[in-house]
């Protein structure tokens, strides 16, 4: 029985069934699920929306490959969600708008500001969704026997169905199912592997326990293994402290400016429910994030143990030559390596001609270069195979990875769709548009976004790892959207001129910096060429501060906002009040 196909088709059927059941019948349903989502349900949907393919597939892989240096993603994303939940979410819900550009347009009493916010949201969302579609192609390419591009097209079809049909209502309840799938798929293999390596069934404790039968801690064993091969200690990093700080901060403040996460807090009835759902989401997120360091370290140890110094057999000849290699006293390359080698995501170059696969670091004792290349994004998917877990567990992990990627992709599609249909069309250019026409445009926009996202996913796979592509989106959000949201809530003197200047100051140089060092003339540059030594993943934090300063200065040099806008800013920070500004036209229910 092919467990992978069984899990994947069963979960896809579930998602489509939910979309049919929760079909959106109005713009209120399509954009914010009718404001009727229970806080616990919304917390689970928020967790699925936020924990993308970057969290499920790539974060543990980066921790596996980079060790302590990869923990910046863990720290930044976790801290960022806390920042969003405590600092922004309740106030945005109190304001009572559909989208982030809607908030910007009304708070800054300007259609121009709304359009700039739409542009920022589209840049962030398309960059983010490209990473998700890349993750979908990664999972499909190995386990469903199709190439990477075909895998992306299949994922596009599934997201197209339930996002376009169900809107936010369908997406919300689909994300609840996807959360259940992804958390089960992430923790079950971790429990198995923790038991096998340390005898402890709790991965979070197995991570710091002794290796079974060796009397040495798991992390100490891993440090000794990697340093013996010429790598830096697993618990160290070659990143500068300032770059680590900037990447962590960019991910934190970027999380607090992500449109697809913020909009989840508009789906609950009241601002108090937004606070509750934020707390529940943090609980659900912690179930995966506390396991990630264990998954990464287990995977690194298993990979090195299974590959290093085994006799290499080319993937194309694996079935024919393995017996002959064994007869000569050698050990054929592991089945998992041969399987993944066909995807091009792992490789081997026999530098010294001895027929052995050897992983080496730059300080290897024999002085030779590393012969084995492994894409960081495959660690989570390959780990169950490496550990020789049952086929049903391997299939479950694939379904979990797809659930993580598709849940976030659907949330991002809602942002893109609403930005075009609601913020650009109805609120800016065609203000007399009917609900029926707006809903039709929203669905067409979502369909177009699915197609664009698929092709961006194909291209982004050549750019960087999934988590790195997603980190660029966080940097763009931190630099462009966070300053205007933060100042819009906590400083009533912030005006439209300052908001527009801040968004453009953050977006343009951040995007240009990322483009230059990842796609442009500077892609072959080293860390010494970076501005202040800050990597493209962390530069959003630097330009966020520049944007904040520019926004404040421009606001002070220009006319103050109208008094009713300043009163509105005071109102949304006081529990139990309701903003009179722009609520009725959004079809909002009363807040407490």
Range of strand content: under 5%
Q: CATH homologous superfamily, by name?
A: Sodium/glucose cotransporter
Low-pLDDT parts are: 324-329, 578-592
The secondary-structure element order is: HHHHHHHHHHHHHHEHHEEEHHHHHHHH
Strand ordering within the main sheet: 1-3
CA-based shape:
globular
**In DSSP terms, counting alpha (H) and pi (I) runs of 4 or more, how many helices?**
24
Structural class: mainly alpha
Tell me the CATH architecture.
Up-down Bundle
**Count of beta strands:** 4
CATH topology: Sodium/glucose cotransporter
Largest β sheet strand count, sense and barrel closure: 2 strands, antiparallel
Distance separating the two termini: 53 Å
CATH class: Mainly Alpha
What's a concise summary of this model?
This protein has 592 residues and is mostly helical.
Provide an overview of this structure.
The chain has one domain (3-299, 390-427, 436-586): Sodium/glucose cotransporter (Up-down Bundle), CATH 1.20.1730. By secondary structure, it is mostly helical. α4 (53-66) crosses α7. The relative contact order is 0.18. The chain has helices at 3-21, 27-32, 39-50, 53-66, 71-95, 100-107, 111-143, 148-198, 203-206, 218-228, 241-255, 259-262, 271-289, 292-307, 318-327, 335-341, 379-386, 391-429, 435-460, 466-480, 482-490, 496-518, 539-557, 563-572; strands spanning 310-311, 346-348, 356-357, 372-374. Helix content is 68%, strand content 2%. The strands form two sheets. A two-stranded antiparallel ribbon has the order 1-3. Strands 2-4 form a two-stranded antiparallel ribbon.
């Amino acid at each position: 029985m092919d467990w992978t196909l069984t899990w994947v088709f069963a979960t896809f059927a579930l998602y489509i069934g939910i979309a049919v059941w929760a079909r959106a019948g109005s713009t209120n349903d399509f954009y914010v699920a009718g404001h009727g989502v229970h806080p616990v349900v919304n917390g689970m949907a928020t967790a699925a929306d936020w924990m993308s393919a970057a969290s499920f597939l790539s974060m543990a892989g980066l921790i596996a490959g980079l060790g302590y240096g990869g923990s910046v993603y863990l720290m930044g994303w976790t801290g960022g969600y806390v920042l969003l939940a405590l600092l922004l979410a309740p106030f945005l819900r109190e304001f009572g708008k559909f989208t982030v550009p809607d908030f910007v347009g009304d708070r800054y009493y300007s259609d121009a500001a709304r359009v700039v916010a739409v542009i920022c949201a589209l840049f962030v969302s398309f960059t983010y969704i490209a990473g998700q579609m890349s993750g979908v192609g990664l999972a499909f390419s190995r386990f469903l026997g199709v190439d990477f591009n075909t895998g992306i097209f299949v994922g596009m079809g599934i997201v197209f169905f339930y996002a376009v049909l169900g809107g936010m209502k369908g997406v919300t309840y689909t994300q609840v199912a996807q959360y259940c799938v992804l958390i089960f798929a992430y923790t079950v293999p971790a429990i198995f592997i923790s038991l096998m390596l340390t005898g402890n069934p709790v991965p979070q404790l197995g991570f710091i326990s002794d290796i079974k039968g060796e009397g040495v801690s798991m992390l100490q064993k891993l440090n000794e293994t990697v340093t013996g091969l010429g790598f830096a200690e697993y618990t160290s990093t070659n990143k500068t402290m300032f770059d680590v700080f900037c990447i962590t901060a960019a991910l934190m403040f970027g999380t607090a400016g992500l449109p697809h996460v913020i909009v989840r807090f508009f789906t609950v009835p009241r601002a108090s429910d937004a606070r509750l759902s934020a707390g529940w989401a943090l609980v659900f997120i912690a179930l995966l994030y506390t396991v990630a360091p264990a998954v990464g370290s287990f995977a690194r140890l298993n990979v090195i143990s299974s590959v290093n110094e085994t006799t290499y057999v080319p993937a194309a000849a694996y079935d024919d030559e393995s017996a002959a290699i064994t007869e000569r006293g050698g050990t054929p390359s592991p089945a998992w390596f041969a399987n993944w080698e066909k995807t091009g995501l792992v490789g081997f170059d026999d530098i010294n001609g001895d027929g052995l696969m050897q992983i080496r670091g730059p300080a290897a004792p024999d002085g030779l270069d590393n012969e084995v290349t492994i894409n960081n994004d495959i660690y989570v998917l390959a780990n169950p195979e490496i550990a020789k877990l049952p086929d049903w567990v391997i299939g479950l992990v694939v379904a979990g990875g797809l659930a993580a990627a598709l849940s976030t992709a659907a949330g991002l599609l809602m942002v893109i769709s609403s930005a075009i249909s609601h913020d650009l069309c109805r609120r800016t250019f065609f203000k007399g548009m009917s609900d029926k026409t707006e809903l039709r445009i929203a669905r067409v926009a979502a369909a177009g976004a699915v197609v664009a996202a698929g092709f961006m996913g194909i291209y982004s796979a050549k750019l960087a790892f999934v988590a790195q592509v997603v980190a660029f989106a966080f940097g763009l959000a931190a630099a462009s959207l966070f300053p205007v949201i933060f100042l819009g809530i906590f400083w009533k003197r912030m005006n439209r001129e300052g908001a527009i200047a801040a968004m453009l100051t953050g977006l343009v140089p951040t995007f240009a910096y990322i483009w230059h060092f990842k796609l442009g003339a500077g892609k072959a540059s080293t860390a010494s060429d970076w501005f202040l030594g800050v990597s493209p993943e962390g530069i959003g934090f630097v330009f966020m501060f520049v944007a904040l300063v520019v926004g404040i200065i421009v606001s002070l040099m220009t006319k103050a906002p109208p008094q009713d806008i300043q009163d509105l800013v005071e109102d949304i920070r006081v529990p139990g009040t309701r903003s009179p500004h722009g609520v009725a036209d959004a079809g909002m229910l009363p807040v407490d």
